[in-house]
Amino acid sequence: MLYIDESTVKDILKWEKTFTAVETAMQRVSEGRIVQKPRTMTFIPNTANVMGTMPGYLDDKEFGALGCKLVTSFPNNAKLENPLPSVNANIMILDEKTGIMKAVIAGTEITTQRTSAASAVATKYLYVNHSKQCGVLAILGTGVQGRIHAEMFRHLFGFPEVRLWNRSKEKAKRLAEELNKKYNTNAFRYCEDNETCIKGADVIVTATNSPDPIVQRSWIKPGAHINAVGANRHHFNELDREVYRNADLFVDSIETSQAEMAGLNLDDNLKGEVGAVINGTLPVSPRERITIFNGIGMAVEDCAVARAVYDLYNQVKYKM
Ligand SMILES: NC(=O)C1=CN([C@@H]2O[C@H](COP(=O)(O)OP(=O)(O)OC[C@H]3O[C@@H](n4cnc5c(N)ncnc54)[C@H](OP(=O)(O)O)[C@@H]3O)[C@@H](O)[C@H]2O)C=CC1
Ligand SMILES: O=C(O)C1=NCCCC1
């Protein structure tokens, strides 16, 4: 059986392909062309560690797949002497006619890219496509997700200013320096505190394990868009409840969000799925309204990207 390792995935998977795969997965969710239940979470007692299983089926000519991701989140990995990613994954894809496993694909890079791509798809359809300004991007949390969002969003949307804030300030400073050097720019700016980072920002990304709100309603400019990525025990810790009360909320999947966001009162402001906006069955919000994308992460996004990697791998292999 084929195993495609992380370095091969990093070699062959480009952001644009991930974006299209995730965009397609989101559309298919809202068309009912998927099967996907809330993931199972195995919480390891007396730790912050968790293992998730994420099975899914996606019907699509180009990105369709039957698969299952096994993903762990061990938040203290980042603090090891030799730091490791805190989120690690593998994705199995199975033959749709026989049910036999076709490949196991290393899923850490896929998870990294597809999570940021989901935010990017939401940002495109809820914000960028409505001629809203892409001037200032605020990133809260400069771990793996903060970094990929900073790079991918600048690449896709051309933000001239990308502000970086992190609980451990040195990490945000270092990332700003590193990215300015890498892209020969001074667009990446370190921010001393979260309030300064958010005030005046057009698009905001939260990518932390914070159990307490790091975004307050009064700091957000009218019409701004927020991608809330971070997940602690709940997928809605990072934004103060007043933010939810004063914004339109969009999700990747209503079915799976209802399980993992059950402690949040979604009734008033949950507008629906990003896929429905893409498909034109759900209207976008008025210009001055704040929008939130709370993407909890979907198995069918992993299936779509894993299928893309599988096909790319086979194209490359056959050419050799
Ligand atoms: N929605 C989705 O589909 C996905 C969500 N995630 C979630 O995104 C978040 C970030 O993941 P990732 O970047 O891979 O993880 P990393 O371990 O690389 O980064 C974690 C970040 O969270 C910060 N953080 C941790 N605890 C706190 C706290 N109490 N207050 C403020 N900041 C804190 C860390 O700051 P410091 O440097 O100071 O420790 C760091 O910036 C996680 O919650 C993860 O579960 C991940 C993948 C998919
Ligand atoms: O969707 C995922 O993959 C994850 N979501 C939340 C936490 C870790 C991985």
Automatic annotation (TrEMBL):
Transmembrane spans: none
Cellular component GO terms, alphabetically? cytoplasm
- The superkingdom of the source organism is Eukaryota
GO MF: hormone binding; pyrroline-2-carboxylate reductase activity; thiomorpholine-carboxylate dehydrogenase activity
Q: What is its EC number?
A: 1.5.1.1, 1.5.1.25
Reaction(s) catalysed (UniProt annotation): (S)-cystathionine ketimine + NADH + 2 H(+) = (3R,5S)-2,3,5,6,7-pentahydro-1,4-thiazepine-3,5-dicarboxylate + NAD(+); (R)-lanthionine ketimine + NADPH + 2 H(+) = (3R,5R)-1,4-thiomorpholine-3,5-dicarboxylate + NADP(+); L-proline + NAD(+) = 1-pyrroline-2-carboxylate + NADH + H(+); Delta(2)-thiazoline-2-carboxylate + NADPH + 2 H(+) = L-thiazolidine-2-carboxylate + NADP(+)
SUPFAM superfamilies from the UniProt entry: NAD(P)-binding Rossmann-fold domains
**Family according to the record:** Belongs to the ornithine cyclodeaminase/mu-crystallin family.
Q: How is this protein organized at the quaternary level?
A: Homodimer. Binds the thyroid hormone triiodothyronine (T3); T3 binding inhibits enzymatic activity.
Name this protein carries in UniProt: Ketimine reductase mu-crystallin
Species assigned in the record: Callosobruchus maculatus (Southern cowpea weevil)
